[in-house]
Amino acid sequence: MKPVSSDDRINCFLDQVCLHLYWPPYRTRVRRELADHILSRAEYLHHERGMDWDQAVDLALQSLGEPNELGRSLRHARFPLLYVLCVLFTGLVWAAIAACLAYLLMFLIQ
Q1: Most buried among 45, 60, 67, 100, by the most CB within 10 A?
Q2: pLDDT tens-place string over residues 27-52
Q3: Dmax (CA) of the chain
């Protein structure tokens, strides 16, 4: 059995996190920032603490927690339910205003 490389473990972790992020620009930015954070932390552990590179990557990934929970937390932080409901309500109000204006214009034209 082929050992899994540290790059594969990082990509797998990032894939799991990004499964929960639906907006492509946000998903790209989070993936890039998390990858930078993981690699920076692993480099620190490798050079400053003298850890083996694979162990340093494992510890850096563990420090971020469970990837599915992290992904859900990032999604809720960016798009909280109250924000989404406010946007939907605002859209409905503007649609009602537009419908009223269209009705008034039709009434005035006759």
Answers
A1: 60
A2: 999 999 999 999 999 999 999 999 99
A3: 84
pLDDT, tens only, 84-94: 788 899 999 99
Give the pLDDT of residue 80. Answer: 65
Q: Give the whole-angstrom CA distance, residue 19 versus residue 15.
A: 6
> What pTM was computed for the model?
0.71
Tokens 């890039």: give the residue.
32
Q: Two tokens at 10?
A: 């990082």
Q: How many CB atoms lie within 10 A of CB 57?
A: 24
Q: Which two tokens stand for residue 106?
A: 């039709």
Pair of tokens at residue 102: 């269209």
The rounded distance, in Å, linking the Cα atoms of 68 and 20 is 7
